[in-house]
Amino acid sequence: MEQPKRDLPERTFEFARRVVKLCQILEQTPGVSRTLANQLLRSGTSIGANVEEGQAGQNKADFIAKYSIACKEARETHYWLRLLVSSEVVKKSKLDDLIDEANQLVAILTTIIKKAKE
């Protein structure tokens, strides 16, 4: 079933909310899980924050800079999610949707940045 289209700030906010929920679970286990949760929390919530800042950009260059940071953070988040699966901290089936969304956000942000540079 196809999901209704949402605007990017809303979509990145929802993604960040899901990352926060995952990190709350990971934080309950000391050691590696907690360390990875901290990394994931920083990058996963930064995507939406930079998109929001970019929406209020002072000019085109500011917009591109903020969206470029958001894209980098989405790539980093994608990395941490894949690492959680690969290192068997979290089962793949539990993170498939989040990994897919991170990948889609990278693609969307990349397209927006390319079009803004034209």
List the helices and strands and how they pair.
Layout: H1 8-26, H2 32-55, H3 60-86, H4 92-117
**Portion of residues within helices:** over 70%
End-to-end C-alpha gap: 35 Å
> Which CATH class?
Mainly Alpha
Total strand segments: 0
Overall pLDDT confidence: 93
CATH superfamily: 23S rRNA-intervening sequence
H and E string: HHHH
Tally of discrete structural domains: 1
**Rg, please?**
15 Å
Q: Which geometry do the CA atoms define?
A: elongated
Structural class: mainly alpha
Helix count? 4
Strand residue content: under 5%
The CATH architecture name reads: Up-down Bundle
Q: Give unreliable regions as ranges.
A: 1-5
Biggest sheet: strands, sense, closure? Answer: none
Please provide a brief summary of the model.
By secondary structure, this protein is mostly helical. The protein contains four helices and no strands.
